[in-house]
Structures are given as C-alpha cells and as structure tokens.
C-alpha cells in the first residue's frame, strides 16, 4: 500500500472552492482520500522499545480476519448507511476502507499532515502505538443489496442465500436506531485506542458517501493464559466454541457452503444481538439460581455433573430451562465471539446499563441460529435477567488478495 506516490497537496483556495461546491464533509473526505496513499512507515512510527509491526494479524488470506482470530480484548462494532447512490463513490469508499485497514493492521498510519491549511490526514492517536493485533471485519446487510425496492448499485441479484433481517422474536424489545444497517464493521484490538482510531478514520473516510447509524464498544476479560473470558454475570462465556475449533469444524460451522454466490466463498454470516443484562437483579439471586440458569458451575465453568470446563456436558443433568441445555437441544453449533458492554446509567431506574454484544458467525443462520434463538427466547431461564434490545445480520465476504478491495467481488463480478 505504501506506493510512494507523490500527491500534490491542495491549496486553501482550492479547498474553499471544493467546500463551496460539494459540501464540507465531502471535501474533508476527499483530502483524506488523497492522503491515504501517503503513509507513515513502521520505522518512522517506531518509538524507543516499541516495534509497531509486532502483534500484527495478517490482512490477506482465504477469510477475513476477526472471525476465527483469537478474541482481542477490545471491540468496536459500527453500522453504516450508504447515502450515495453513485456506484463509483461507493467503490471509492470501499477502496479507501480497504487501504486503511491494510495500513493500520500493519501498524502504520496515514501521514498526519503536510499541508497546514488542511486537517491532518490521520487523526494521530496511534502514532506511537503498535498494530496491537488489530483486525477489521466487514459485513453487508440486506439493504446494501437493495433498499426500499431499489437496486441502487445493480447488485440485488447478488444477495446471499440466507441474508435477511433476523425475524422478530417473542421477547424482543428492539430499538431500530441501534439495529441493522447497510455495512457493518467490526474492529478488534488489544489496545482500545488502536481500535477506536481505526473506526474513527473509517467514519472520516466515508464522509459524503455514508453515515454512521450506530456504534458499540465492547470488552472482554483479557488474560495471557488464553482462558475463556467471563461475562458480566461472572460465568465463562465461549467454552463450547472448543467443539468446532479445527479446520474441519470451522468448515462445518462457520464458512459459507454450497448454494451461495461465488463472493461468499470463504465468507460467513455475522449475527448480532445487543442483550441488556440486568446486573442488579442477577446480583441479588443465589449462586444456586445463577448456576441453574446456565446448567454450569460458576467458578469452574464445568457443566452440571462434570468437573472440568471442557468435560462433555450431559444435558439431562441440567435444569430443563437452563441456557446450555436449550442450546444443546437445538443440536446446532455456532461460533460465538461476543463482548461485554457498559452504557452508563439507565435514567429511569438508576441501574447500570450493561450487557452482552452477542456476536456469532455461522454458515447458515436459518439452520444454526434462528431455531436456537426462538427456543431460547421462549423457554430460557436466562430471560428473567436479560432483554434483547438490538439486532442485525450481515454477510461477510471471504478474504482478500493484495490489490483487491472489500466488496469488489460483489460489485464487479
Ligand atoms: C441464540 C444464541 C445465543 C444467545 C443470544 C446467547 C446469549 C447469552 N449467552 C450467555 C451466556 C452463556 N452462554 C453459554 C453457552 C451458549 N450460548 C449459546 C447461544 C446463545 N447465547 C450457545 C450456542 C452456547 C453453547 C452451548 C453448548 O453447546 O454448550 C454459556 C456457557 C459456556 C459456553 O459454552 O460459552 C454462557 C455462560 C449470556 C449471558 C447471554 C446473553 C446476555
Ligand atoms: Fe449463551
């Protein structure tokens, strides 16, 4: 990506002309775009004892990063609405997002500025920071392909097989302003500032072509030992992922299969549910009630009737309405990659607004996720303590080769 291209800076007079004719947003966006070719190389970014190329996750390959990548500690999830109807403008943004992903995952930044009359190309807050295992995962929602009956970009025919909004579930209390979207970007890193920097610059680069619908920030309990993170109810969350963590397992559970458009090869579906967790209610319930809710022991994470976290669960030993027993009854596997969130105080109750940004990846949401979700929403003991408040389903294309841009296989095949 570091092409070494010399781009001419634009003068303040040119800048004013552009803002007058196309609006400030687009002008700032355009200046960012020109400058994205100019990057600060890892060596010039390095500070004493800090190698910015360390902790890199490769950007190119069969699959996008951030799906089966071991979970980093911080995440931002953001949804965009494409506002441009112009295909070339859309392609320009997708190209810029891709270039920016490439350089920031490599621990580099855009040049902060060589024209004092313009805003710096890069916001600058990662100048001294390494790549921090940054990953960027793009997903496309149903409205990317067609919205309000309009085929804006001539891609309605490219809709993948299972992409649609998650149907309304019995106890949903969904907020439309926090749900869905044309494009979803999941950004994860070991340093929260690195993750935020990426998202912030994706927003900047999309000016004049897309707007931010919503964004969420999440965290998990870190730990160098690779332990399963604990959620805000204090339980290990993610244990059962172990059942499919092999090449064959990912093939069966995560990667899109037959009957999909070519661009979904190596891709998957990302399901998102924002689930509020009523911490105050939970904290007043007994340990026995808490453990009965999941059918697992709190401290060890072991399933009822077993000793170790990864011992094979016997659902018949768990309460009938327990969360894990119901998940097992669905006989399906999904790859969960959720994050906890906190959102300040609920002004109506004075309680903490917090919960789980449930994210799962699966090859067929109709078969794997929806029956499980229905079953849980109608019977799960967990429902006493949680409420689903936002939702989304996005199709994530397969990985990229160098030189390709995200979404190219949809727009140009
Ligand atoms: C429909 C999918 C699921 C939603 C929504 C969901 C919400 C949710 N889960 C927890 C906590 C735990 N979940 C656990 C296991 C588990 N959960 C799902 C699915 C959904 N969870 C599955 C498929 C499984 C695996 C079941 C299995 O095969 O064993 C566990 C146990 C440990 C583990 O395996 O991860 C916990 C704890 C919360 C708090 C929550 C919503 C807020
Ligand atoms: Fe769960």
TrEMBL record:
Pfam families with a match to the protein in the record: Dyp_perox_C (PF20628), Dyp_perox_N (PF04261)
Record EC number: 1.11.1.-
One GO cellular component term noted in the UniProt record for this chain: cytosol
Keyword Iron on entry: yes
Residue stretches making up the Dyp-type peroxidase N-terminal domain: 64-219
GO biological process annotation, one example: iron import into cell
Cofactor comment text: Binds 1 heme b (iron(II)-protoporphyrin IX) group non-covalently per subunit.
SUPFAM superfamilies: Dimeric alpha+beta barrel (SSF54909)
Cofactor(s) of this protein: heme b
Domain Dyp-type peroxidase C-terminal: 228-399
GO molecular function, one term: peroxidase activity
UniProt entry keywords in alphabetical sequence: Heme, Iron, Lyase, Metal-binding, Oxidoreductase, Peroxidase, Signal
Catalytic activity: heme b + 2 H(+) = protoporphyrin IX + Fe(2+)
InterPro entries: Dimeric_a/b-barrel, Dyp_perox_C, Dyp_perox_N, Dyp_peroxidase, EfeB/EfeN, TAT_signal, TAT_signal_bac_arc
Function: Involved in the recovery of exogenous heme iron. Extracts iron from heme while preserving the protoporphyrin ring intact.
Name of the protein in question: Deferrochelatase
Organism (species): Cohnella herbarum
Gene name for this UniProt entry: efeB
């Amino acid at each position: 990506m570091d092409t070494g291209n010399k781009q001419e800076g634009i003068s303040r007079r040119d800048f004013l002309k552009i803002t007058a004719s196309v609006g400030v947003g687009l002008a700032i966006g355009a200046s960012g775009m020109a400058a994205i070719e100019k990057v600060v190389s890892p060596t010039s970014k390095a500070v004493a004892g800090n190698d910015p190329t360390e902790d890199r996750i490769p950007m190119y390959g069969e699959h996008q990063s951030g799906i089966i990548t071991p979970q980093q500690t911080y995440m931002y999830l953001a949804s965009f609405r494409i506002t441009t109807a112009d295909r070339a403008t859309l392609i320009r943004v997708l190209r810029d997002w891709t270039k920016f992903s490439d350089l920031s995952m490599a621990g580099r930044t855009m040049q902060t500025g060589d024209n004092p009359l313009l805003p710096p190309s890069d916001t600058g807050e990662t100048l001294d920071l390494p790549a921090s295992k940054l990953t960027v995962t793009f997903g496309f929602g149903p409205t990317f392909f067609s919205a309000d009956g309009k085929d804006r970009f001539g891609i309605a025919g490219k809709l993948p097989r299972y992409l649609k909004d998650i149907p309304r579930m019995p106890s949903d209390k969904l907020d439309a302003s926090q749900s869905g979207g044309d494009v979803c970007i999941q950004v994860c890193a070991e340093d929260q500032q690195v993750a935020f920097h990426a998202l912030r610059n994706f927003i900047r680069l999309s000016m004049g072509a897309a707007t931010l619908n919503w964004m969420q920030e999440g965290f998990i309990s870190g730990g160098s030992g690779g332990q399963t993170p604990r959620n805000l109810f204090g339980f290990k969350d993610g244990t059962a992922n172990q059942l499919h963590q092999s090449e064959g397992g990912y093939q069966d559970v995560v990667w899109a299969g037959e009957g999909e458009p070519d661009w979904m090869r190596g891709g998957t579906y990302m399901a998102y549910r924002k689930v509020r967790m009523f911490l105050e209610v939970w904290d007043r319930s007994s340990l026995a009630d808490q453990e009965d809710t999941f059918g697992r022991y709190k401290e060890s994470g072991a399933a009822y009737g077993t000793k170790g976290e990864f011992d094979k669960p016997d659902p018949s030993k768990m309460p009938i309405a327990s969360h894990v027993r119901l998940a097992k009854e669905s006989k399906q596997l999904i790859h969960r990659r959720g994050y906890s969130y906190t959102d300040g105080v609920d002004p109506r109750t004075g309680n903490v607004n917090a919960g789980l940004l449930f994210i799962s990846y699966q090859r067929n949401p109709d078969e794997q996720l929806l029956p499980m979700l229905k079953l849980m929403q109608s019977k799960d003991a967990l429902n006493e303590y949680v409420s689903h408040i936002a939702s989304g389903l996005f199709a994530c294309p397969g990985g990229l080769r160098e030189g390709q841009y995200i979404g190219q296989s949809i727009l140009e095949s």
